[in-house]
Each structure stands twice: as structure tokens, then as C-alpha cells.
Amino acid sequence: MTLAELLPSIGCSTEPVLEEGLWPDGTSLNDQGLIIGGLPAAQLAARFGTPCQILDEATVRARARAFTTALPRAEVVFAGKSMPCPEVYRWTRQEGLSLDVSSAGELALAKAANVEPGRIIMHGNVKTAEDLKAALEYGVGRIVVDSLDEIAQLGALATHGQEVMIRVTPGVDAHTHAKIATGVEGQKFGFSLASGAALEAILRVVEQPSLKLVGLHCHIGSQVRHVASYEETVRRMVGLIASCGTRIEQLDLGGGFCAPYLQGEAGFDLAGFAHRITGALNYECAVHRVPPPRLLIEPGRSIVANAGVTLYRVCAVKRSTRTFVAVDGGMSDNPRPALYGARYAVRLVGRGGRPEPVTVVGRHCEAGDVLAENVLLPHDVHAGDLLAVPATGAYHHALASNYNQVGRPPVIAVRDGVARPIVRRETEEDLLRRYL
Ligand code: LLP
């Protein structure tokens, strides 16, 4: 048995074929190496430096369209936190999606992208006075309230029929990492359905003359694999709609649709979701004799994750009991392995070779700064080599930090052989600007 067969679940970068589903649409390997968006990765790295994130526009647009095509009557809302960037907000808006934001900062990006206020939804378990005021000033269409305090605060600030939705905790386990499981009791988001808190919140909103209740919202978690988790959510949410005695026009099921990160992982069953969720909604509404609300969904990761590839330069290789391949980025551009134990495939750009298991580490002053453990790279990997990591388009730019005062990488949009920066690299000047 070969080494590659012994380690079946990790991304094997030494195979001459690309892992299916992980890379942007149309990514290929030819005699120029790895081609993304019609451009050689090596050329992109030389032109824009490393580390850098490549984002394939056509893939983002195609994934966005897949949602509107699968659910033509639903409102599809791009979860702006997954890839906060005005240009990406423009793409998803042009594809017919609305946008959700969770702070005045994300709203500022939405404004810069000219997203119409009526197509913006603001949520978050905490909205400061500044967040709420910014939302009201721009005329954000819907605000998802998440506490009784917030209902009172927004009620006081709003002057006329501000549309709101109520964030409900349906008590559904989405079988995902605890840090991104948000549908269960005992975590900070939403009003509990089981305890009656959600019903109380509905009454409070209805009592506020300056607020208009238009919908119920929930979000059971992220990287959710099973459609059944959403079906159960629909069942519970329609039960709440039926029992609350108020007409609920919109039901927002949030996002969370999984994306593949490793070879062999399946993407989300969107067609199955569309079919089963529409069926569940109609059935439950018929049983409870309530008119079906309009469905909303808020995909983020499933639209952008596999459109993104991060390029790193190998700076050093250390061979001891293990082989460490150290690159010029790390947990400042990708804290997901440290936060969620996330795993990634890694590919050496430009050549193959006899595979050797290595640990790819970052440049930061923490032992936990590991990007990928036990991945196969050619045994002669050396300083100067270029590595490409797919499935890095969601929550990478968003979660990036300046740890060790390392500037955050640029985001380079590629499309049909043309590359252009949509986020520039953070410079020492940028860093110094904040220090007084
Ligand atoms: N709607 C709401 C209310 C959300 O809170 C989120 C994500 C989404 C939609 C989009 O979920 P998606 O489709 O992208 O899974 N930083 C973590 C993910 C945190 C998700 C936060 N909320 C990560 O890197 O995995």
C-alpha cells in the first residue's frame, strides 16, 4: 500500500489531478502549472506577492446563481460576514441576492457597494447604538432583533414602522463544531422557542408602535451537512408561527450550507434542500392552517469558500522527527485550524514528486500556528516553493488579524485571464497609522 492510500482523507498535492470540488470552477493543471481564473498561480504570486488570496469571480457568481435558480421564489441573502468586500457585495447583488450585515462596519461596505437599503438585513446578537443608528440612517430594510433590550432600544430610536424579524433559537442540533452551532439552547444567539421567550419577544415587538414585525429568523449553525436539520427547523418554526396569533410574512432559515475542504468531502445538496424544504414548509403550513411565509436563506460559505485559493511561499523546511514546512503567512490570514480544528488540502505549485507527509506551519509566535497537519507534499519541498491552499474564500479575509504586526494579505479577483486586486495588501504604513 502506498503512502497516499494510507492517508486517504487528506489532500494529496502530489497527484497530477486536482481534488474534485475544492478548487474554483475551471481550475486546471497544465504545463504552466496550476491555472486559476485563466492565469498561472506562479504568475499571480510573482505579480502580487505572497501570501495572497485569489478569488475567482465566475465561481462566486455561479454559486450565487445556483441558489436563486434552485429556489426561485425565495429571497437569497448573501451573508456579508463571510467575505466582507464591496466588490464581492456588488457581484452577489448583481446576481440578484440581498445582503446581510452584522455591524455598522459591514454596512459601510454595503453602502460603498451601493446595495439598496431595502435589500439589506442587519443582524447580530449585539447591535450597539452606533450600529442601530447607522442602520436607521441608511434605511436598512429589516433588522433582526436578538434581545428584549434591543427591542426597547430600537423601538425608541425608530420613528416609523421599522421592519424587524425576531431571531429564534429553534433548539435544533446541526451536528457541527460547537463554536459554530447556533440553533441549540445554551448559546448566546436568539430567543428560545422552547422556553416561551420567542413568543414573548413577538408580543414585545407587536406592542412597539415604531416597529413592524415582518418575519422570524433563525440560523442553526455553519458547515451544516444534513438537509434534515433544516427540515426539523422548518417544522418547529412553523409551529411557532401558528401559535403566535400574528401574521408572519417571512421565514428566514439563515445560512450554514456546508462547503468541501478536503478531498472526498461532498458539497451541500442544494437541489435536495430546495425540494425538501419547500415541501416541508408547504406541508407544515397546511397542517397548521397558516399561509406559507416567504422563505429567506442566507448562504455565505457555500458561495465563496471554494472560489478562494491562498498562495504561500515556503520560507524554510525543518526536518526532525517531523517535517515542518514553514510559509510566509499563517494564523493571521487563517486562524480556522486553531479556532475550529479546520483541515485543508495543500498543493505544491509547479511540480510533483514522491510524497512525504509534512506539517505546514505559519510564521507566527505560537506553537498552535499550524495551517495543515499531515499533508502530502513532494519529498524535496524546499524554500522558495509555492504552495496553494484551496477552499479559503470564506471567513479568511474576514477573520484575518495583524498578529505579530504582519500585514493582512491582498485579495486578487481573477476572471477570464484578468487579475485585479479588490483588497490591497496591508502595509507597515497602514499599521503605523493607528499608533499615537
Ligand atoms: N446568517 C447568520 C445569521 C449567520 O450568523 C451566518 C454565519 C450566516 C448566515 C452564514 O453562514 P454560512 O452560510 O457562511 O455558514 N467564522 C466561522 C463561521 C461563523 C459563521 C457565523 N455566522 C468559520 O470560519 O467557520
In short:
Helices cover 29% and strands 24% of the residues. The protein has 436 residues and is α/β, with parallel strands linked by helices.
Hetero groups: ligand LLP
CATH topology of the largest domain: TIM Barrel
Helix content: 25-40%
Give the C-alpha Rg.
23 Å
N-C termini distance: 60 Å
Structural class, by secondary structure, is alpha/beta
The number of distinct β-strands equals 21
CATH class of the largest domain: Alpha Beta
Our count of helices gives 13
Which SSEs are present, and which pair or pack?
Blueprint: H1 3-6, E1 28-30, E2 33-36, E3 39-40, H2 41-48, E4 52-56, H3 57-70, E5 75-79, H4 86-94, E6 98-101, H5 104-112, E7 120-122, H6 129-138, E8 142-145, H7 148-157, E9 162-169, E10 191-192, H8 197-207, E11 211-217, H9 227-244, E12 250-252, H10 270-288, E13 294-297, H11 301-304, E14 308-319, E15 323-327, H12 336-340, E16 347-349, E17 355-361, E18 370-378, E19 386-390, E20 411-415, E21 418-423, H13 428-432
Parallel strand pairs: 4-20, 5-6, 5-13, 6-7, 7-8, 8-9, 9-10, 9-11, 11-12, 12-13, 15-17
Antiparallel strand pairs: 1-2, 2-3, 4-14, 14-15, 14-19, 16-19, 17-18, 20-21
The protein binds ligand LLP.
Residues 79, 82, 123, 180, 219, 222, 254-257, 298-302, 336, 340, 394-395, 399 line the site of ligand LLP.
